[in-house]
């Protein structure tokens, strides 16, 4: 016989443009692609997440993949609502209770979008719903106590969106976000190779270069790697050899919007807060935080130390779950979904 986990399951959810992560009981209990597989002609939903990817690869061409989140916003409300129900049910399959959910949100979304998100979670089976901005959740997930008088600076670089915030005494000092993420970096690499070497490469290869070869700061090593693409002039497939030194400056140029965002947020810090930031540094999270040399380079640009969180891709979902136990202590950070109930 299965043992139920408790009366109320507590879930921290980070629903990004590429992945959805659900955190509970001190671990990530679900991590899947935030997409759906749809039948081309009828629009019938064939599967979500991993099942959707498998169906798209095994189908005879009558199936398409829909990514339901873009720039932190639901592209299709109905599909997202069904996707959330599917993932929440999958995450708490051994429980008969309706979960309490804390969902991470980008800093720059409107009340209308928040309303739609809460409504989708309610229809997905959540009993109580709370919202928390992604950088605040990341700081909590990284182990920082943000209801003390010391200022905390946190930045999350996702696939489509980068969010940054300063928090002090359990409240928001400043928060901003921009449409920039790992996908932007991939596109920047692809465009550079096309402009500089007249070679067309795909986004998959650009992402692989970013993850496996390129460092934001030159390491001093003479590492070389090869890329394969089609020459623009005649479409002939060729192989090109590059070095890390070729691309480090390009990475720095591509990442400038992130630095400008952090500086904009930091301008809101008082002299006392600036002292805290110099002492404690900035927490960097999100999948792009794993990029080689990014912490060292950003630190050199903003003038405060930068620390990459442990498991940076998971800390937002973890922080949401941890914040559920401290929601009463964080009334200026945690937003109750009750004011949005009632449908849209």
Structural class: alpha+beta
What is the distance, rounded to the nearest whole angstrom, between the alpha carbons of the first and last residues?
41 Å
Q: How many strands, which pairing sense, and closed or not: the largest β-sheet?
A: 6 strands, mixed
Number of strands: 19
Shape: flat
Mean pLDDT comes to 90
From the 3D structure, determine the CATH topology of the domain at 136-180 and 255-317.
Nucleotidyltransferase, domain 5
Q: What is the rounded Rg?
A: 21 Å
In DSSP terms (H or I, runs of 4 or more residues), the helix count works out at 11
- In CATH, the architecture of the domain at 136-180 and 255-317 is 2-Layer Sandwich
Run of helices and strands: EEEEEHEEEHEHEHEEEHEHEEHHHEHEHE
How much helix, percentage-wise, in residues?
A: 25-40%
Low-confidence stretches: 1-7
Strand order of the largest sheet: 3-2-1-9-10-19
Quaternary structure classification = single chain
CATH class of the domain at 136-180 and 255-317: Alpha Beta
CATH-assigned homologous superfamily of the domain at 136-180 and 255-317:
ATPase, nucleotide binding domain
Reconstruct the topology from this structure.
Layout: E1 10-15, E2 19-24, E3 27-33, E4 35-39, E5 45-48, H1 49-58, E6 63-67, E7 69-70, E8 73-74, H2 77-91, E9 100-105, H3 111-123, E10 128-133, H4 134-141, E11 152-157, E12 162-168, E13 171-178, H5 182-197, E14 199-200, H6 203-212, E15 224-231, E16 237-243, H7 244-254, H8 256-266, H9 271-280, E17 282-285, H10 294-302, E18 306-308, H11 315-324, E19 335-336
Helix pairs in contact: 2-3, 4-11, 5-6, 5-7
GO molecular function, one term: ATP binding
Subcellular location: Cytoplasm
Pfam families: MreB_Mbl
């Amino acid at each position: 016989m299965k043992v139920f986990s408790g009366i109320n399951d507590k879930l921290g959810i980070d629903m990004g443009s590429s992945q959805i992560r659900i955190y509970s009981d001190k671990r990530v209990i679900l991590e899947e692609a935030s997409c759906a597989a749809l039948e081309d002609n009828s629009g019938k939903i064939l599967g979500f997440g991993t099942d959707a990817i498998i169906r798209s690869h095994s189908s005879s061409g009558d199936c398409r993949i829909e990514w339901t989140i873009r720039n932190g916003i639901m592209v299709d409300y109905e599909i997202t609502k069904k996707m959330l129900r599917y993932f929440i049910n999958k995450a708490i399959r051994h429980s008969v209770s309706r979960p309490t959910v804390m969902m991470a949100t980008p800093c720059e979304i409107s009340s209308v979008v928040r309303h739609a998100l809460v409504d989708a979670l309610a229809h997905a089976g959540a009993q109580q719903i709370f919202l928390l901005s992604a950088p605040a959740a990341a700081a909590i997930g990284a182990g920082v106590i943000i209801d003390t008088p010391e200022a905390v600076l946190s930045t999350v670089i996702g696939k489509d969106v980068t969010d940054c915030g300063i928090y002090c005494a359990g409240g928001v000092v400043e928060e901003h976000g921009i449409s920039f993420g790992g996908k932007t970096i991939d596109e920047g690499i692809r465009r550079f190779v096309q402009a500089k070497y007249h070679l067309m490469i795909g986004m998959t290869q650009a992402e692989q270069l970013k993850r496996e070869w390129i460092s934001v700061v030159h390491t001093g090593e003479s590492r070389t790697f090869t890329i394969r693409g089609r020459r623009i002039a005649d479409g002939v497939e060729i192989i090109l050899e590059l070095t890390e030194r070729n691309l480090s400056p390009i990475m720095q140029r591509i990442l400038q919007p992130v630095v400008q965002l952090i500086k904009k947020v930091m301008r809101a810090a008082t002299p006392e807060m600036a002292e805290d930031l110099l002492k404690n540094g900035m927490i960097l999270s999100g999948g792009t935080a794993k990029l080689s040399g990014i912490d060292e380079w950003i630190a050199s640009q903003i003038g405060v130390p930068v620390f990459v969180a442990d498991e940076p891709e998971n800390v937002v979902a973890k922080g949401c779950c941890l914040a559920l136990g401290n929601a009463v202590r964080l009334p200026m950070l945690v937003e109750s979904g009750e004011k949005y109930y009632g449908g849209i």
